[in-house]
Amino acid sequence: MSAPELAAQVADRLAAVRERVHEAARRSGRSPHALTIVAVAKTFPPEVVAALRDSGHLDIGESRAQELVAKVDALGPGLRWHFVGRLQRNKVAPVVARASLVHSVDRLPLAEAIARHAREQGKVQPVLVQVNVGEDPAKAGFSVEEAAEAVGRVRALDGLACQGLMTLPPLEGDPREPFARLRALRDDLRATYPEVQHLSMGMSADFETAIEEGATMVRLGEAIFGRRDATA
Ligand SMILES: *Cc1c(COP(=O)(O)O)cnc(C)c1O
């Protein structure tokens, strides 16, 4: 499909997805306005992101540093970029220069590197701490047991603002339980650290469940952009 054809489709798909997000929020007695849809644009070209922007949608996610840099530089200011992927330390500086929120702080040396670059760039970088709630060996993130200490250390770093938690549930099995576990962890942490608010959980296949379990941000790729190349 050509970029203009795809661009016309994504705005329609986003409207349908937004309706489902709002329904799930209403079902669980929550305000849809408290929910952010992050449109994860990986593998899709800047023209398609521009179509979302033109329809009024400003929260865009990327999982690779080079792709984030290329799209931000192609599109200019005016969007809020979310970095959601595994971040290598040698890619931290360009991501910090562009990201509104880094969802995927999965180890302390990475947190320290982000903090250092944020200080050098004169900003405070909002981040989420990634927790491997399903204890899935294939997934990054702190274990549930490590999470409280990790959040304590991350929030103490000058240059970082820890705004919440993020997870990717195991591919197999019902995601409801892992989502509920992340929420319980957030509730515990928030009692000590009031700024730990966000729950970034839920993707195209399970976002309604995630919202029912308390997600404040859902990260949606295929539901908005359509199928991607399986290698992405
Ligand atoms: C790709 C990706 C998503 C979006 O996945 P979909 O299944 O296409 O909705 C969400 N979160 C992360 C971390 C991703 O890499």
Describe the structure.
With 232 residues, the chain is α/β, with parallel strands linked by helices. The chain has one domain (3-225): Alanine racemase (TIM Barrel, Alpha-Beta Barrel), CATH 3.20.20.10. It is 44% helix and 16% strand. The protein has nine helices and eight strands. An eight-stranded parallel beta sheet has the order 7-6-5-4-3-2-1-8. α1 crosses α2. The longest helix is centred in the first third of the chain and has 25 residues, at 3-27. The chain is globular. The mean pLDDT is 95. Pyridoxal-5'-phosphate binds next to β8 and α9.
Task: Give me some keywords for this one.
single chain, 232 residues, alpha/beta, TIM Barrel, eight-stranded parallel beta sheet, 9 helices, globular, binds pyridoxal-5'-phosphate
